[in-house]
Each structure stands twice: as structure tokens, then as C-alpha cells.
Amino acid sequence: MLKFFASLLALTTLAAVTAVAAQADSGAPSWGPATPNFNLQVVLRPVDGATDTGFGLVKFRQPKDAQKIVYLDVWVRDLGPNHSYLLQRAVDTNVNDDCTGTSWLTLGKGLVPEAIATDETGTGRANLFRNLASIPLGTEFDIHFRVLDASGAVVLESACYQFVVSQ
User: Fold this and answer.
1) Tens of pLDDT along 7-57?
2) Which residues lie below 8 Å from residue 133, measured CB to CB, with a gap of 6+?
3) Which residues pair with residue 121 across a beta bridge?
4) Calpha distance 80→35 (Å, rounded)
């Protein structure tokens, strides 16, 4: 009986390793190398004095490939219903956990800004991306994000994060 369980465990382990290898060969995206800060989970919170009590999340992912595209899966909730919002980012290259960058860039699909539209409950999603091909590999920077409403008022903002352009 013990021999049977040992054989079963060996077969199960082999099947798991084969499944992982098959996925790696399938062309599925590999989400970054073993360098720090190539993928971020950015939390967006209401700004001081905001009337909205919203919340947001940005999954900031750079696959391990030569294209240097960053994918931003954005999700917001508890904002104004049936409204449009914009996601912006600012960076600085003095990497010290103090985001001093003020050159805000509106994010979208590549160079085309894209709104985050909320539904009747104030929840919205957007799949955005940014091409970093012009930025040298290994470049590090502080980065922070904010969400603006249609009037240009900031409703959500993030803390300071660090990012490394990777391949």
C-alpha cells in the first residue's frame, strides 16, 4: 500500500511539473524578471477633503519581453455614478520614496488618453497600457498616481511607489 501511495505522489508531481512547463511554452505572458519593483499593486485613496469616499486599484504589470509595455488594469469604486474619470501618473528619477514629480501624464491606450467610466453604482474598470520603449532598461523612478473627475478635480491619489524598467 505504501508503494502505491509513493507511486501516486510521483505521478501527481510529474503531472504538475508538466502542466507548468506546458503553460510556459504556450506563449502566455511572463510577468517580469527577478528584479524588484517591475510590477506594482497601486492603491488609490480619497484625497484630503474629498466628498467622494471612493477607492481604487491599479495593477501595474510589465511582462518579461523586449516590447517594454506596461499594462495598467484600473478599477475604481464608490465614485460618482455614470461619470468619466482619468488616471494620471507623475514620476521623478530621484528614487527616495518621496514623489516630487509634478509633470502629470494622462494614461490610456498608448499615447491616447482613455477615460474610466463608472456605472450606476460608481464602479468602473479600464485596461490601459503605456509603451516604455524609449526608456533605457534598468531605469528606476518614483511614481505616483491620481484620478481626476471631469472638472479636473483630484478625487483619488496613491502613495509613492518605485519602479524599475525591466526586460
Assistant:
1) 433 434 334 433 433 344 444 444 444 445 568 999 999 998 777 689 999
2) 67, 68
3) none
4) 38
Distance CA 72, CA 118 (A): 17
- How much is the pTM? 0.77
Residue type, 75: W
Asked whether 143 and 88 are in contact (CB, 8 A), the reply is no
Q: Per the structure block, which three cell numbers stand in for 137? A: 532598461
Cβ(54)–Cβ(79) below 8 Å: yes
3-state secondary structure of 5: helix
- Look at residues 96, 99, 81 and name the one whose alpha carbon lies nearest to residue 42: 99
Spatial CA neighbour of 125 closest among 46, 66, 72: 72
Q: Which grid coordinates belong to 148?
A: 481626476
Q: Average pLDDT, stretch 127-132?
A: 96
Choice between 52 and 130, residue whose per-residue pLDDT is larger: 130
Report the alpha-carbon distance of residue 58 to residue 40 in Å, rounded. 8
